[in-house]
Amino acid sequence: MKLGELAERLGCQLEGDSAIEITGIAGLAEAGPGELTFLANPRYRRMVRATRASAILASPDAGKMPVATLRAADPYFAFAQAIELFHAAPRFEPGIHSTAVVAPSAKIGDGTHIGPYCFVGERVKIGRNAVLHSFVTIYEGAAIGDDFFAHSHAVVREGCRVGNRVVLQNGVVVGSDGFGFARDPEGHWHKMRQAGIAVIEDDVEIQAHSCVDRATVGETRIGRGAKLDNLVQVGHASRVGEDTLLCGQVGLAGSTHVGKRVILAGQVGAAGHLTIGDGAVLTAQSGVPNDVPAGAMYSGYPAMENRLWLKSVAAFGRLPELQKRVQMLEREIAALRATPISERRGGGANNGKKKPMAPRRKARRTKRGAKSD
Question: Do domains 3-86 and 95-301 have the same CATH topology?
Fold first, then answer.
């Protein structure tokens, strides 16, 4: 593809030769002649001088580049679009593989591909142009929208609802039983029947081996456009807002409500029965025992305001020194307490007592009122 055509399709301003042939895309360090690369993070500016790429995507304020340049307000997003131009998604022919099992009462939309060893239960509804890759299981009564894509070993459990353009990566389970148990009179755990469902709204992607539990009653809901990374656990009756990111190994205990456009970085854990407000950010490995206000950035455990956490972390490195100083001060205080008060005041031969004053002689008065010795 000519660079000029690529600029037009990406909506970028071109600086350089529009006739340059672009045959692929690559990162700054790997790109070679004929390839397009990108600069999104200023930290990598030093790598631009050494790039062998034929063209680069960069922001308007990124300065002069040594190769032909496509200026984009968001180079990273433009690069994501460029990937789609050079690496089209695989296409799957409509039809049902001979090894698949599809219940007679299931309704399958036009253009749907059901691959080897899939199972589709009774009363299932699947929209148009869906792809069930292989070994995908859809339990009875599930309802799935258009353009659904389920990779191998993905599961949608009974009664759950999935919207349009949802992607389930390998091993995802939607609607697994919530972790609900009650003690019986003898102290044994009695399993609570998980009678609710899980709802996945439009444009959600859930990556490999993540689980969204069904509710005990009611529903667990993942909002439109949310993205869940690998190994994420969403507990029963939780709610995840629109366009929220849950990064790898995030865990939400039951009844956690996460707002819109929230980012929970890797291994964040929420204790459950709490709310994380819209636009909040929790940095990696934060533990959340209480509500988090909208727009806040929290870190650590227990999670606290990020600036306070950074100050606390800075103090951690000085703890051994501070401990020694405290021990020294404690010894000095103990020594002072063991010293008599008189010695603390620097007493001497009089044991700290004031020297007695000489008695004043009384003046004698004459009959005339004159003083006399």
Answer: no
Determine the Cα–Cα distance for residues 248 and 71; give it in Å rounded to an integer.
Answer: 32
> What does the domain layout of the chain look like in residue ranges?
3-86, 95-301
pLDDT in tens, 103-116: 999 999 999 999 99
For 310-327, give the DSSP string: HHHHHHHTTHHHHHHHHH
d(CA 223, CA 242): 4
Burial label for 165, CB within 10 Å (0-12, 13-18, 19+), is middle
**Which tokens go with 134?**
């292989």
CA-based nearest residue to 14, from 62, 76, 58: 58
| Angle formed by the axes of helices 75-86 and 3-10, nearest 10° | 120
Phi, psi of 297 (to 5 degrees): -115, 115
| Catalytic positions, written as ranges | 236
Tell me which fold the domain 3-86 belongs to. Answer: 3.40.1390
Please state whether the peptide bond connecting residue 359 to the residue before it is cis, i.e. omega within 30 degrees of 0: no
**Class for the domain spanning 95-301:** mainly beta
Distance CA 77, CA 145 (A): 27
Encoded amino acid at 277, one letter: G
Structure tokens at 273: 């029965």
Tell me the helices (H) and strands (E) count for the chain, helix number first: 6, 40
Are the beta carbons of 226 and 247 closer than 8 angstroms?
Answer: no
Q: Is 118 exposed, middle or buried (0-12, 13-18, 19+ CB in 10 A)?
A: buried
Question: For 1-56, how does the pLDDT look when each residue is reduced to its tens digit (9 = 90+)?
Answer: 999 999 999 999 999 999 999 999 999 999 999 999 999 988 889 899 899 999 99
- pLDDT computed for residue 339 by the predictor: 85
- Find out whether 35 and 56 touch, Cβ atoms under 8 Å: no
In DSSP notation, 107-125 reads: EE-TT-EE-TT-EE-TT-E
Euclidean distance between CA atoms 158 and 242, whole angstroms: 24
Other C-beta atoms lying within 10 Å of the C-beta of residue 130? 27
CB-CB neighbours of 73 under 10 Å: 11
